[in-house]
């Protein structure tokens, strides 16, 4: 399919000029309204710091960004597991499984995520951690071998902050899993009914029909919105700052309180979030194009 040529016409130039004028007026009004002494020179030190022994190291904002990325990756991985199981249950023949999946999806989608964060952190985690032995293991973290502490810090967070990190991951996974379940169920439902009948006529059982015939076709519909759901998880991860997980928004709140550089800090955080989500969006678009060629 030939690519469309991009042309730049007079209307585009007029719109660009109007946009630049509006931006200039906005910045001028900000300058008049706030009479603010900008201090952008202070921002780089919050991104990187120089250690005489180890060289350049990430400082609070970059450490917060890395925690956001780790939180999003673990949450999405767990949400995929929850969402696929719930999606398959929602598309099954069993009325009980369909009701179970529908109850889960509707409950999660109709609760504020902030409420879920508090429920999981103060109730469910506090209930399950002693039963699973996790609480005792974290209490003895000082006896862990150094390599294990380093590995856990790299993959998740420091042992002292693991309870909050685990609660945040589970909360985001359960919340995002409800949306992934709908994506999976919708992808399966998009496959024509005749495909089920054709697979059945070959003598395949329900599981084999799903695995060999339906899911390969449904993936074309499922994968692009899944990439969008990962971007949504990155944005939703900001809400776990209320339980003191040192992700990007939490670090911004702490930094703003300590330095009073409100505008510089939040504009920098906005740019970091945009760089992360727009980068993921570009990758998702490329993945979607590649899948369009393959299927």
UniProtKB/TrEMBL annotation:
<comment type="similarity">
    <text>Belongs to the binding-protein-dependent transport system permease family. HisMQ subfamily.</text>
</comment>
<feature type="domain" description="ABC transmembrane type-1">
    <location>
        <begin position="65"/>
        <end position="284"/>
    </location>
</feature>
<dbReference type="InterPro" id="IPR035906">
    <property type="entry name" value="MetI-like_sf"/>
</dbReference>
<dbReference type="InterPro" id="IPR010065">
    <property type="entry name" value="AA_ABC_transptr_permease_3TM"/>
</dbReference>
<keyword id="KW-0029">Amino-acid transport</keyword>
<feature type="transmembrane region" description="Helical">
    <location>
        <begin position="265"/>
        <end position="284"/>
    </location>
</feature>
<dbReference type="InterPro" id="IPR000515">
    <property type="entry name" value="MetI-like"/>
</dbReference>
<keyword id="KW-0812">Transmembrane</keyword>
<feature type="transmembrane region" description="Helical">
    <location>
        <begin position="111"/>
        <end position="131"/>
    </location>
</feature>
<keyword id="KW-1003">Cell membrane</keyword>
<dbReference type="InterPro" id="IPR043429">
    <property type="entry name" value="ArtM/GltK/GlnP/TcyL/YhdX-like"/>
</dbReference>
<protein>
    <submittedName>
        <fullName>Amino acid ABC transporter permease</fullName>
    </submittedName>
</protein>
<feature type="transmembrane region" description="Helical">
    <location>
        <begin position="71"/>
        <end position="91"/>
    </location>
</feature>
<keyword id="KW-0472">Membrane</keyword>
<dbReference type="GO" id="GO:0022857">
    <property type="term" value="F:transmembrane transporter activity"/>
</dbReference>
<comment type="function">
    <text>Part of the binding-protein-dependent transport system for glutamine; probably responsible for the translocation of the substrate across the membrane.</text>
</comment>
<dbReference type="GO" id="GO:0006865">
    <property type="term" value="P:amino acid transport"/>
</dbReference>
<dbReference type="GO" id="GO:0043190">
    <property type="term" value="C:ATP-binding cassette (ABC) transporter complex"/>
</dbReference>
<keyword id="KW-1133">Transmembrane helix</keyword>
<dbReference type="Pfam" id="PF00528">
    <property type="entry name" value="BPD_transp_1"/>
</dbReference>
<keyword id="KW-0813">Transport</keyword>
